[in-house]
């Protein structure tokens, strides 16, 4: 579980994160959603250690992880657009990252399911957007991390690859992992997420389970439930 306490981040006069306090439990696939500019990426990057918050704490296993580089080995990250050295091949990228991490225990489920072993000789420059996404997904899960942060993970993937990734996400959730997905495509989250954290203007509006959202709104589909909540609680 990750516990976020009074997390605040400003950029000049803009408050990107406004005293966010909430808990992200294990065995959860949590959707981090909200309008453009609401602070989702800033929150995700704070957990990833890319953004340094001004105030507050992010507690993982009893320790504040802000500025703690050791935590990074517990987290897998799939960026929306993966950027890799263009002249390197998929095989070289995989080998380089395995070398740097030096870990023996590898989870190659996604590499195998996406048949990346047939593409190892291809340079990153020559890959389609979807294949680059497959490499990013395979890397995020490769070291069997306890926490996964996935940014628009299925965007750009074909339906078969989307299905493979969704199955993998659900499998890892069932093993007790915390998976945080940032997405604007609510329909892709419907069969995946077990909780929703909704942000608006740097504030946390709610962090609720799917069951709570369904009970509150009477809606089965996530997109309909969120739409109903936003209509009944418009934020000016
Ligand atoms: N490095 C930065 N310097 C200045 N302002 C920033 C920086 N990063 C983010 N912001 C601002 O902080 C606010 C929150 O941005 P953030 O990227 O977290 O939003 P988001 O919810 O992820 O948006 P989107 O859905 O468009 O990706 C925005 O107003 C953004 O312009």
Indicate the CATH class. Alpha Beta
Based on Cα principal axes, name the global outline.
globular
What binds here, in terms of ligands, is:
adenosine-5'-triphosphate
Residues in helices, as a percent range: 25-40%
Tell me the series of helices and strands, N- to C-terminal.
EEEHEEEHHHEHEHEEHH
In words, what does this structure look like?
- It is a single chain.
- The protein is an alpha/beta fold and 236 residues long.
- It has a single domain, classed as Rossmann fold.
- It has eight helices and ten strands.
- The strands form two sheets. The chain has a six-stranded mixed sheet, with helices on both faces. A four-stranded antiparallel sheet has the order 2-1-4-5, with helices on one face.
- The protein is globular and about 55 Å long.
- The mean pLDDT is 94.
- Adenosine-5'-triphosphate binds next to strand 2 and helix 1.
Topology summary:
Elements: E1 2-11, E2 14-24, E3 28-33, H1 40-48, E4 55-60, E5 63-64, E6 75-78, H2 90-101, H3 109-113, H4 129-142, E7 147-151, H5 159-174, E8 178-182, H6 186-189, E9 195-200, E10 203-209, H7 210-217, H8 222-232
Parallel strand pairs: 3-8, 3-9, 6-7, 7-8
Antiparallel strand pairs: 1-2, 1-4, 4-5, 9-10
The site of adenosine-5'-triphosphate has 11 residues, from strand 2 and helix 1.
